Fold each of these.
Amino acid sequence: MLIKDMNWFQVEDYLKHDDRVIMPMGSTEQHAYLSLCTDFILSSRIAEEAGTRMNIPVYPGLPFGMASYFTGFPGTVNIRPDTYGALITDILDSLHESGFRRIFLVNGHGGNSPVQTFIGNWLNQHEDARVVIHNWWASPEVMKRVRAISSNASHASWMENFPWNRIPGISMPQEEKPGINPAKLGQLPASAVRAYIGDGNYGGEYQRPDEEMMDIWSAGVEETCHLLENVWVAPMHN
Amino acid sequence: MLIKDMNWFQVEDYLKHDDRVIMPMGSTEQHAYLSLCTDFILSSRIAEEAGTRMNIPVYPGLPFGMASYFTGFPGTVNIRPDTYGALITDILDSLHESGFRRIFLVNGHGGNSPVQTFIGNWLNQHEDARVVIHNWWASPEVMKRVRAISSNASHASWMENFPWNRIPGISMPQEEKPGINPAKLGQLPASAVRAYIGDGNYGGEYQRPDEEMMDIWSAGVEETCHLLENVWVAPMHN
Amino acid sequence: MLIKDMNWFQVEDYLKHDDRVIMPMGSTEQHAYLSLCTDFILSSRIAEEAGTRMNIPVYPGLPFGMASYFTGFPGTVNIRPDTYGALITDILDSLHESGFRRIFLVNGHGGNSPVQTFIGNWLNQHEDARVVIHNWWASPEVMKRVRAISSNASHASWMENFPWNRIPGISMPQEEKPGINPAKLGQLPASAVRAYIGDGNYGGEYQRPDEEMMDIWSAGVEETCHLLENVWVAPMHN
Amino acid sequence: MLIKDMNWFQVEDYLKHDDRVIMPMGSTEQHAYLSLCTDFILSSRIAEEAGTRMNIPVYPGLPFGMASYFTGFPGTVNIRPDTYGALITDILDSLHESGFRRIFLVNGHGGNSPVQTFIGNWLNQHEDARVVIHNWWASPEVMKRVRAISSNASHASWMENFPWNRIPGISMPQEEKPGINPAKLGQLPASAVRAYIGDGNYGGEYQRPDEEMMDIWSAGVEETCHLLENVWVAPMHN
Amino acid sequence: MLIKDMNWFQVEDYLKHDDRVIMPMGSTEQHAYLSLCTDFILSSRIAEEAGTRMNIPVYPGLPFGMASYFTGFPGTVNIRPDTYGALITDILDSLHESGFRRIFLVNGHGGNSPVQTFIGNWLNQHEDARVVIHNWWASPEVMKRVRAISSNASHASWMENFPWNRIPGISMPQEEKPGINPAKLGQLPASAVRAYIGDGNYGGEYQRPDEEMMDIWSAGVEETCHLLENVWVAPMHN
Amino acid sequence: MLIKDMNWFQVEDYLKHDDRVIMPMGSTEQHAYLSLCTDFILSSRIAEEAGTRMNIPVYPGLPFGMASYFTGFPGTVNIRPDTYGALITDILDSLHESGFRRIFLVNGHGGNSPVQTFIGNWLNQHEDARVVIHNWWASPEVMKRVRAISSNASHASWMENFPWNRIPGISMPQEEKPGINPAKLGQLPASAVRAYIGDGNYGGEYQRPDEEMMDIWSAGVEETCHLLENVWVAPMHN
């Protein structure tokens, strides 16, 4: 149930019996040997699988996010935070104007999380709405499975290496990269980040067997479906 | 040659021998009986076909654009002009930082055109860059073929009805809708626009035979390829 | 009936029987051998003649507009699009607060047209208002007369050469300049624009007889008056 | 020597031997029985007389300024401070790009003075420039003459009543209005300001003989000319 | 009665019987031999003494203000005017949301005064509120006492030298510095300001006996208390 | 070594041998029975103790932060994220202009963390600078001690109850409050947050013995000192 397969009459009909909607939030940024669009591909696919199963419309995802620390790697796109906050605000305004009230954002990029602060302010102006940012990769069921394999798992490592964001014909390094110190990164400009993290993997092996990855993936879809049904706090005083 | 099928090493390699790049600009807004994502689907596909043929990388497209006049139709997303200008500015900054110098934007939505003014100001700060907005549907070769069929052709009419943005199972009205007066629309808020334009078609039949549409489509791809090769003005004094 | 000849008591009185108002939008930018203020002078004069004839108050015009592509020519003033959008928004807020509901902007500069997008968003917040941007030089009756003389007519050519924006003592070149390719201009920074267009004329002769020009002028004033009476779409559902 | 009587070639020539330029800053706001454009008319005229005498080009003035406290009076236009700051910043950028280095702003409205803070920040980015805001009515020679007539002189009183901003056919009240307490005004919204100040005069008689006014006017022009020649601080370390 | 000594229950209780609140506005900027935080220390202390005496809660003060002209002196912090206006606007929104209606800002820095324009616009959106900026050092009773000692008294001179903002162990120059011409300063970037004003004192002796200073201080506290009780204009039509 | 005890000469001297500086970031927001300024008091005190020990200057802290979710509790101040980002950006610009290069922000409020994204963009424009946000309460040594006492410890619980932010005369509830589900909070407007969390404590007892608290405090100061010496990544390629 994708918005791109619907016209406006169909959205109007849907809103007569439900007010939930999904939008993926991605990023186009270095992911070492994996696709530059890894966060966009994965969040979009999680959203589409869950939305289809739950009969909730899924908007096309945002391909670009906040990634200032990766602009030293060619191909990366960085949206500044005030731009990104304005963009999300405009989208929320539009969804609310359409009639959606429970808005579920499937986020694929940790760097996008600060947009929560813009959403908090938006909510104060739209008291009948609810907005959830779901960091699908960081949810308990997904994290449990990741850690069962290895605690050395991070940005651009095996943990993000799924069949749908690998580049055909690119073989992965065989070693396990030691974890970088993420606390060091925050103080650095992008040029120093590139010097510090080499190929872009933050730590961990580069690839794991597909059956392990599909188990993680299924848990991600399941958990997203579960939240779409159960996460909402009912209106209290409004 | 899509950015989503490339990693950062590959972009770095590409930039050693070429500096062109493509990005589609779409919109998610009422298109009468057609997909809400019509402008996004068509501009993305034109861009991808042309980029693949010309070996120029294509970024994922922007799904949302400036559509304030359509917010009375559910499903429409409207990005305000200062947000949209900031978004394009951030993307241009990132592409320039990566090393791209000739940036080709395939635009699928007339309402996005005003972003040209933001681009003009950006260019004054980046004198070694060139940026083209290509309104693919309004280019001479496409327009010639459209007018050969009918001069009554506009937003959400047959002119935008391609196999890839029709909604399965939705049948089209058989009549030809008289053209609305676009000059009247500009003065109206979105609620009055909806009252004025009914189903959303601005004028014309709703569908034409696919062979006619594929001829238009081919011309659109051809012309885009031609421009990617020939449109650029060489640096003059910088 | 110029606002500069009215005090606030008189505006309050006027608003008891009419809610229309006029404001010119100009630009100060290179116009080859003609006045830098050509667009400001002409839009102001069209507005004042029409407003006087129709008994509708005319605000003083905006002398500066969006002209990023001409900043390579000394004397040009460029207002960035977010500034210009904010300026028009503040003015519309003020006119609405005063009690005006039908606002007619006489625009003298094509580069100002993108402000329409800001106006569209403003209208959605002020559903009882109507706002028209009237590009006086591009209206059907004016264009018909221009084309009857020559299709080679553009920025800073004879088409904009009226008695009230010529510089005393400056003689015009006698040749007819070939039209530049406007499609090339959009991709260029201002420095390259200057190198490309030489004296600033976009194409055409530099001067035509005053009787031809006065015929064009009269048509411009007439058409403006006609629109001030007839262009408005009545409120529909608000 | 008005910019509206110059083309870009002439500005380019001027800049070979001088780098000074003048721009008036006005406001369109209630002035009791006087023209709504009083501040715009007076600052423009002072600027034009001084510029002509000193052979310094004068740009057309800004008709609108910051006047939030007067929006309860119909006809008033209020520009918000961030808009006004952005507008002045864009203009300064343009003048600097043209080649002007000593920029003299003739201000006719006290409410515009806070834009000085935006100018201060702009100067830090343009160390070779100088910018003066000249509040012509508050300068020592003008104030000396005003106070010699009466210390009860303020906004919209006799002090601002010149032949060029009176409304034909409007007779002035004969009494002298007691001064309002300006300190009270700052805490009030516009609706309460209107209730507080009645016709809009802040205090004083409504009119004085023209010969007194012309003496004040001449002093204003003289002082402006004097400053245009002598106010500038030479570059020190840049 | 300081907000830092209150919890939210206590503020809720207070608001049942009073709606006044105080916030100091300071600056951290060069003050010659005195503390960089002079304006912050003094405005905070005036506010706290007055608030305690009057039983009105005092928020912690803003340590930073608008000081673009002093950035050539190490230690100075400059907040740009649009940032500062947004900051004050957010604070006013919060205080109003809490339930405060009469907001009293004790300002210690002349450069902050332009924020009045932002406040004026905010008031128009909150007609039941009143906001006063009190420049404590410039109030009549304080000024009377300052001038009785010397008319040569200005930024960073004896006039601002109180026991609570002197640096221990720093001795003051014994001479009286001639007044600089403040009218010259406004046209200069910060680097030239530093060259122009030397140690940072705008004019006057560097220190006076504490008994003189305590008399000034007491007048400042008294006058602040008086205004907190008497300055307010009652609602008129709202 | 507090900036409020220094003049600009002393800062200039300091910068000849060191380039580190500290600034606390607080918030004024509900903390149940504790001071509204808890986050401001604690971050300021940690900063001041560490700065004094390490001979690094400490600026006065920011009393207000991003707290949109608490505006339903009287006394809370909420700074919007674009305002807060602009504020931090202006401060970083000023510190860099002064000559500081290693900037250490002691943050007392989790809601301020998203400002990291603004800082990342700022760093890309100032490649010779380093900026660290130190969430003092969440650092490993502090967290280890907190968890040794209880894992039920959160906003406004015993974990934040130190001698310096208790309200004299207010007694604490004796029970242990069950932890609220923080994941639920993010989707809610402030009014619903207040209904959901009651007195404002997120979970845990309200008070623990001072000796336990002082052990935590000491660890916080120690760790801050350690980081001030050791956290910095040396310049790599710039």
Amino acid sequence: MTAVYDMLRRVTTATVTTMLLKKGIRHCWLKGAMPLATGAPRLVGPAFTLRFVPVREDLATPESWGKPISTRAAIEAMPAGCVAVADAMGVTTAGIFGDILVMRMARRNVTALVTDGVIRDKAGCMAANLPIWCQGTAAPASVNGLTFVGWNEPIACGGCAIFPGDAIVADDDGAVVIPQDLVEFVAAEGEEHERYESWVVSEVERGVPLPGLYPPDDAARARYAAWKAKRG
Amino acid sequence: MTAVYDMLRRVTTATVTTMLLKKGIRHCWLKGAMPLATGAPRLVGPAFTLRFVPVREDLATPESWGKPISTRAAIEAMPAGCVAVADAMGVTTAGIFGDILVMRMARRNVTALVTDGVIRDKAGCMAANLPIWCQGTAAPASVNGLTFVGWNEPIACGGCAIFPGDAIVADDDGAVVIPQDLVEFVAAEGEEHERYESWVVSEVERGVPLPGLYPPDDAARARYAAWKAKRG
Amino acid sequence: MTAVYDMLRRVTTATVTTMLLKKGIRHCWLKGAMPLATGAPRLVGPAFTLRFVPVREDLATPESWGKPISTRAAIEAMPAGCVAVADAMGVTTAGIFGDILVMRMARRNVTALVTDGVIRDKAGCMAANLPIWCQGTAAPASVNGLTFVGWNEPIACGGCAIFPGDAIVADDDGAVVIPQDLVEFVAAEGEEHERYESWVVSEVERGVPLPGLYPPDDAARARYAAWKAKRG
Amino acid sequence: MTAVYDMLRRVTTATVTTMLLKKGIRHCWLKGAMPLATGAPRLVGPAFTLRFVPVREDLATPESWGKPISTRAAIEAMPAGCVAVADAMGVTTAGIFGDILVMRMARRNVTALVTDGVIRDKAGCMAANLPIWCQGTAAPASVNGLTFVGWNEPIACGGCAIFPGDAIVADDDGAVVIPQDLVEFVAAEGEEHERYESWVVSEVERGVPLPGLYPPDDAARARYAAWKAKRG
Amino acid sequence: MTAVYDMLRRVTTATVTTMLLKKGIRHCWLKGAMPLATGAPRLVGPAFTLRFVPVREDLATPESWGKPISTRAAIEAMPAGCVAVADAMGVTTAGIFGDILVMRMARRNVTALVTDGVIRDKAGCMAANLPIWCQGTAAPASVNGLTFVGWNEPIACGGCAIFPGDAIVADDDGAVVIPQDLVEFVAAEGEEHERYESWVVSEVERGVPLPGLYPPDDAARARYAAWKAKRG
Amino acid sequence: MTAVYDMLRRVTTATVTTMLLKKGIRHCWLKGAMPLATGAPRLVGPAFTLRFVPVREDLATPESWGKPISTRAAIEAMPAGCVAVADAMGVTTAGIFGDILVMRMARRNVTALVTDGVIRDKAGCMAANLPIWCQGTAAPASVNGLTFVGWNEPIACGGCAIFPGDAIVADDDGAVVIPQDLVEFVAAEGEEHERYESWVVSEVERGVPLPGLYPPDDAARARYAAWKAKRG
């Protein structure tokens, strides 16, 4: 997948969603998973999923952190390069991870953490150099509102279904999921789409109106073909 | 568990939540899961869980209904007497089951269907004689908004964590979950609590004010003890 | 106020809101406070307020029910004829009152209970013969989600400000609050408005279109005046 | 369209949504538009649209009811048999129509009123014999929260786009919109689908499990063909 | 209007809302329309409206971008200096415009884009030098969740009614709408209010408590008059 | 309390919530109250409460600002060092305070303003040097949506109960409330917890996996004891 992932790194999440729409897929952008720090480079990786259910007071305790099914154990199972995607059910009152867990993930060369929930210890998380897409920050720990139940299962995240191994692309416009079977299609079509849009931008810059340009009529199509041929 | 379940059938869901609060458990009432038809008898059974994630257009199709992991297959795995509890993520725009699936569940002697989502084919579902607790009704099928991913896993339902085998009690006040380890405690304490409340009702009926009665002061405690002794 | 309250009993809540709009008041209908049982007669009374804040686990316990500031003590302070209005902050997961407290309120000749929250022990509450306007039913007790802090203070309820002594009118369209200073205005204007609308209904029944009738043009105004004069 | 509408009257809204999914349409069920009275017959008609925007206090007044662009004028423009569909932006605190307007619509032989908002004067509306699908009831008038801006424009209603002339089908599961170009397709396919489901019901009644039956495998397909042939 | 717009540019949106309250108008601040980049100068212009309804899958497609009623055509109809106000129904999962359309709007000397929805291609939009007030950013295109239906009609935006030609004022506190008939009133009163508040600030700076100062008692009124006279 | 407050200033809000969980308290983080400016130092102080109810148009007017029960009067009652906590019922469309009131609070040496609502005049508020935790900014004044009713009463704020005199701690992760009786416990336990976590960080930095470290097994506990002893 490495070559395809490299291609995807040059395709904006905006373009990814437009390519997926060609296949009838509208549920691919993870609502709520926005960059904790803006301006970071676009990141791509296979999804490693984490699943939470609501708090049950007898199970969701600091003691649970030492159990075999725990966020700690899940982190040790993460392969280098993966994007950890956590189903926090959109809960914004309990931070699923704090600085210590985030540091450990960075150590294990995880590419990014993506969640429809929030993190805690914001300052420490930012210092840990793990790019994070989330809804924001809260002081309480996950056990204040959530019970961790497992990893690498199908999950919900931000209104999307995520299956382990799906591709995640994340940039300033948020995070999107590409079903595993469509990764090559999106990468190839996306590359061409980015090329076309860069030509459209140059046209708009010289004052061409959009009707007939984007989407293109026959004249625009011809001008684009010429530009593309020249560019090589 | 049969004897304990019989005891629970005489304990209101209101009392169950008060008993669970003694153990520090506040997340036990399934928000949104209300009786489709009011006035039904209280029902009790072990939870059989069903799990949905959001729709992915390439997976959530009528064709998916024929796959090995499908709501159809899940129904065939339900043991008689269980309460089917479905995590529909609170989605109210896609009915997780229609009349045909509900009829089949009734045939298999499922005790009840409980969900934080909605059902479809309301008239047919009501005719099928399977008691249902849900948020209401919608015309679209589950695949319009949801993808089914499995059964008998821990789930979220109405803001609660549900583990397979937990006890579900459902009546006109909604549905509650009792963690498996606390079922005997709740049944025993609940029975005494119901007895006490029935005495309080008789006191209120004869005009006794609530302060000092509920909760009881020493005098009320003595009167209750006498009433209880007499009653045998 | 008795005579004015008698007049108000003949004015629909719909008309009350239209009369209040003449005074620039748009926030007067209590969102969420709907009749638990439909078809009851219209009820009117002065507001007796109850105030809850969110649960704090060290304070919101069954033990708190025996303290001086408790829902029990508040009920004993309610004068006959009042409408108890409870600010439950719109919380729908904790029933502010169950059957026993409702029975006691009925005993004390409270006119009605109105809340933007929910009640519990639905069957028992319906049997207690206290008319209730609320968002519905939940099994858990108030202490599961709320802490009671006092009575006869200004409160929020359903998006409205309620001050002790304001008039509450409740019917099948819900519950409305009339600021104390405007009660006489609303009663007098409302009576005339009801008369006018009953004439409009008779006009619509005989096939008159609405433009020019409601609101009336000069011709309609004359016809109405004649009808009113004849009716005496 | 009369013949097609007659066919649609025999197709449940649940089936309509399943047929539309075959064409990739998932946004067709009007969230919030539920029957005010249950158990009514299924209704079908072409959409006549009404559009509201939020209240602006200088425009949304009882005086506005006499202006050329008013709900009154819109009602007089409704053709017999149409289904009036009102975009109330999901607002639940202002009733778009009361008993008088509803009476006039019934007089004009409007088939039904469908809205993602609420109505007022519930008792009067129920008496007026105009079937209504809505979110419920509120006492305040439309001008308390909404400004009426026009009719027979494209609108939003319950999360769906509605264009004048689209077909609306409404029953106990709610209301659905069929794009004008797909009405014949849905009617024809829907009729066959209902026939197939009625056979499935008979199979479930005699104890056949769902896997292999719904959706059908080859054996089931053959049994169904035989049943259909026999039935004629 | 140019002179009045120049005056409004010196009046904060906070002051605009206080002046409109004098005329009974409380619905004038566009909820959700916040500056994409903070610290920009205050902007003023007449509203040019755009209207979206929910996605209908057969209409909301990339192909629709080439149709006569399209966002592209709407942009070509925008006069220089206008503020484009888009009714996106508060949808946050589909960006109504991306960098290319925003570039074209900047080219056409549009003053600003204001919406209760979101934009996409955030980095490109920020580079295009068109000030934007919105709820944030999403990767998917408008057609993922919305259908464009027209321009220069009355619209809803952020809980307000907007009519073409109303004045829009936008700064760090968000965007407000001034009904066309009230623009001169707000400009004149707003200028005096700003002067008064700047005097109050100087008073607070020298330690004067607020009671008696803001709102002013007679003594404060006199001090202010003196300050104003001196200032000339 | 000064010494205890000094200790708390070294304890993160994240740690405070974990310590309170040991006492069974999960409702202690004020949802919505986030820092207006990030990167400020942690602040601690006793809560001075302010209470709003919804707007009533006859009471919530600019004229009300001059009444005895007004936000102005409340500010004059604030003791130096307090944290003003305002119950704005989570309303985000009316700014409870603008720059002038915030300036006066800063003048009176208030430590911080914390609310589940929003402020207005953002630029002026930031310049006034009063740290603020809130949901954001809106142009309209409090009277646009809220009626002020009093101070130093128990309030709701961000889903928590706040009693006057409770300790408030606020930093980049938001604001938390510590019940007055638990302040010493949290300060003492929190200090030790911070020490332990700083050791864990050093362990993670040298590559130690989390299972067995956090929470610690016996080996880790011993290593920590040694580190602590050495550190003195």
